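Help needed: design a sequence for this.
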């Protein structure tokens, strides 16, 4: 299932990337989404930052999903490769449960606008589980969209705090 989200910020693309590079922002985003955050790896070489994070969501799942997943919590690792020079990040989600049946990947692009910048997130989230796969995809896309909306508010608060 395709995912496309857009968020506008009153800052430059460079300031946006500086804010999201702060791991405290990631922790705040996870907390706002009723989740747990752990940084597993981060390395920067020649303007390319590779980051691997683990997120565990503590939200209630429908009983059919719990039965298929064998757990009542969704957890995944997020690998992001950020090209600081191109203001672009490629991301891939690897679930902790059913990694051969659930996948997600995409790109985040941030471009300058006359009043700040625009973040566009595009990707595909796929669940290959008989009978309930489509419902699981819909739930996953909805949860991801809500999470990115919450992250946009956190980033906006950080921008305002930097402005004083």
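Sure. Designed sequence:
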């Amino acid at each position: 299932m395709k995912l496309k989200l857009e968020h506008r910020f009153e800052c430059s693309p460079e300031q946006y990337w500086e804010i999201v590079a702060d791991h405290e922002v990631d922790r705040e985003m996870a907390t706002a989404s009723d989740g747990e955050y752990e940084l597993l790896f981060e390395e920067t070489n020649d303007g390319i930052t590779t980051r691997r994070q683990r997120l565990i969501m503590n939200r209630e799942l429908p009983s059919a999903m719990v039965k298929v997943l064998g757990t009542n919590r969704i957890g995944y690792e997020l690998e992001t490769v950020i090209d600081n020079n191109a203001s672009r990040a490629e991301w891939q989600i690897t679930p902790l449960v059913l990694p051969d049946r659930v996948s997600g990947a995409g790109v985040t692009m941030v471009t300058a606008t006359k009043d700040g910048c625009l973040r566009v997130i595009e990707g595909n989230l796929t669940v290959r589980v008989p009978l309930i796969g489509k419902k699981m995809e819909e739930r996953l896309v909805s949860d991801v969209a809500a999470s990115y909306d919450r992250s946009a508010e956190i980033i906006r608060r950080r921008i305002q705090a930097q402005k004083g």
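The first helix runs from residue 13 to 20.
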